């Protein structure tokens, strides 16, 4: 009986150690997205762009400063794995957290997707209702900011 208990105990310890190892193996440095205050629309991050700056690091987070156009280019490589990313609206007054939640919980980040081989990442910033309305239009929504009232693309000045 004691031998069976010891064998099961050793098995459980090894199983637990494997789960810990597997979970640590799939982690990455988290991202901190700084988005212009009031921005509504799709954000697009383009990785591995030659000549673009690398992402800076702030308190252990990759810092992604999204421009008014909603399109950020970096020479950094997108990392794989799990992390707790953060999203903020940024104004002259400082940062205001943007909630990333499940359906019906008041979140403002939707449809986060990554293209194969870590080349691009896209997500929608806005209420769930704005995302559903913009996504339901013929052709869905376009890259870049949308007018908060009509959810049609805003005309951007190219810099």
General form? elongated
Q: What topology, given as strand order, has the largest sheet?
A: 3-4-1-6-7
Query: Class by helix and strand content?
Result: alpha/beta
Distance between the termini: 76 Å
Provide a count of the helices.
Answer: 2
The number of E-state strands comes to 10
Number of domains: 1
Uncertain ranges: none
Record keyword descriptors for this entry.
single chain; 159 residues; alpha/beta; 5-stranded mixed sheet; 4-stranded mixed sheet; 2 helices; 21% helix; elongated
Short account of what is shown:
This protein is of the alpha/beta class and 159 residues long. It has 2 helices and 10 strands, in the order αβββββββββαβ. It is elongated, with a radius of gyration of 20 Å.
Structure description:
This protein is of the alpha/beta class. The chain has one domain. The strands form two sheets. Strands 3-4-1-6-7 form a five-stranded mixed beta sheet, with no helix packed on it. The protein has a four-stranded mixed beta sheet with strand order 5-2-9-8, with no helix packed on it.
Write the layout of secondary structure elements.
Blueprint: H1 2-25, E1 31-36, E2 41-46, E3 57-58, E4 61-65, E5 71-73, E6 86-91, E7 94-97, E8 109-114, E9 120-125, H2 128-136, E10 144-145
Parallel strand pairs: 1-4, 1-6, 2-5
Antiparallel strand pairs: 2-9, 3-4, 6-7, 8-9
């Amino acid at each position: 009986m004691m031998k069976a208990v010891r064998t099961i105990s050793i098995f459980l310890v090894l199983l637990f150690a494997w789960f810990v190892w597997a979970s640590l193996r799939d982690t990455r440095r988290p991202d901190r997205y700084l988005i212009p205050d009031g921005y509504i629309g799709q954000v697009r991050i383009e990785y591995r762009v030659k000549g673009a700056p690398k992402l800076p690091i702030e308190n252990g987070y990759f810092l992604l400063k999204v421009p008014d156009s909603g399109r950020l280019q970096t020479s950094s490589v997108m990392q794989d794995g799990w992390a707790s990313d953060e999203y903020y609206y940024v104004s002259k007054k400082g940062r205001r957290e943007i909630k990333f939640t499940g359906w019906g919980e008041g979140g403002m980040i939707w449809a986060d997707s990554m293209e194969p081989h870590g080349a691009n990442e896209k997500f929608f910033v806005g209420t769930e209702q704005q995302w559903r309305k913009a996504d339901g239009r013929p052709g869905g929504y376009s890259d870049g900011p949308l007018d908060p009232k009509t959810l049609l693309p805003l005309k951007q000045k190219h810099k």
